[in-house]
Amino acid sequence: MREKRGNTYWVRCPKCGAWFHVAPDLLHSKKVKMQCPPCHHEFFANEAEDLVEP
Amino acid sequence: MSEQAVFSVRAPISTTHAITALQYALQEKKRAPVIVIEKPVLPTGRGSALPVVCNLTASRRLTAAALGIDDHRAFARSHAEALSAPLAPRKVPRADAPVQEIILEGKEANLLDLPALTQHVGDPGPYLTAAHATTYDPDTLIDNVAIQRCWVKGAALMSYFPYPVSHNARNMRKFWQRGEDCPIAFWIGHHPLVLMGAQAKLGYPESHLAAVGGLLGAPLRVVPSVTHGERLLVPADAEIVIEGWVPQDTFGPDGPFGEYTGTLGPQVLAPLVRVTCLTRRQNALYHDYGSGLNDMLVPDNMAMEAKLYAMVKQVAPSLNTVHVPVSGRRFHAYLQFGAPAPGEARAGLTAALAYRRVKTAIAVDTDIDLFDETDMLWALATRVQWDRDSFGVSGLSGSMLDPSLPKGARTTSKLAIDATLPPRRGRGPSPSLPRARVPARALKEARTLLQGFEQGGWPRE
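YS: structure for the whole thing
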């Protein structure tokens, strides 16, 4: 039987600490920053407070 | 439309969460009136000049009635027939276009003045959810229309998320490959017939504005957009139009956002739109679809039914009708057949699985009510041997919004279930057990007996 695994990347905003989920192409983008939904802070993946990979 | 079909809220109500919560509360009660918010309150605390209309198409019966169809169950066939005879739109002068009664350009065109809703927990801000993104194929000049979400980021800036395989995304890439920005217009609010026609599932490139004409039985009135002129026509009788450009290879974050799946999709890379102009009626209404709620699912699922009907009917002539239930989002298709020949129901099921969004297709007979989930489950419980009557297919194109897809998947697995009775042999009944029932006359008398009794205090099922 094949094991069920997750499929979603979660990041934590370095400014307000909120968790939100991001598509891989945005997460790995070197040009476009992610934007925290509650505080609108913009940051790249290497600046994230924390990161959960599936 | 009867007065009872409209629920008007006269008290001020916030565009952040409160209006969408009202839709959820009504859905819990299984009620689907059209909602009019007369005094929406913007995030700044200021009142909006434009009322909000939502839940416009939450009722399947009301939506079918708006299309002039008495019985919503017959929608798939009649819609498929209407779409097969498109009519080119008719251009009218600006003076005859209510949507251009007010023209706001430059700094006057302020998206933040629109009562766009922030619907769900986790949405990053206000979204246009009923914006019909209209582009054209630069090779053929044929229009394409699709509802695609827009995050309002500033007075003249929004992100816009065309699904990568969508026809609008294809048009956009064609312009970009020519080294040009993509002209675009978003129109909001129109008669449900126009909204349904615009969502018709067509090939590429095929005109959605002409498909609308097929449904209307008359050409759709269109007017040249202020920014793009004759190249990009917009419905003259829409409520609001937003015009602008999608600059080449310019992206921003978009989302998370509530999807039709009922889940919150992730933040994605999305093109940005630079807004140049906003036009509207003098007394415009702002239309919103509750994303993932019935008012968004019902019309699009009904459009899917018409497309599925046309696809399946070609290989299975005994197809009677199709239902894409909102309970299955856009992943389930129920097909009803009238005495299918041996193998015919399965041929029809196979055709249905070819439709990208359909993940599970179920075939039943005409004695099963496709619009009653209990009846559908009864058919599954009593007419299916899983190893004999179901078959799976892997590696098919599917919706990449399906939350159950494994990481990195580009295709999906699908299931067909044949819950029809065994074919008849000769003139007798089907060689299977009959359904238990009471005489029709006794049932009618029983219903009469119940009339007039107060049933509110009786125990629920």
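YS: worth flagging: Chain B has a mean pLDDT of 94.
IM: good catch. Also Chain B touches chain A at residues 122-125, 251-253, 256, 264, 266-269, 403, 405-407 (CB under 8 Å).
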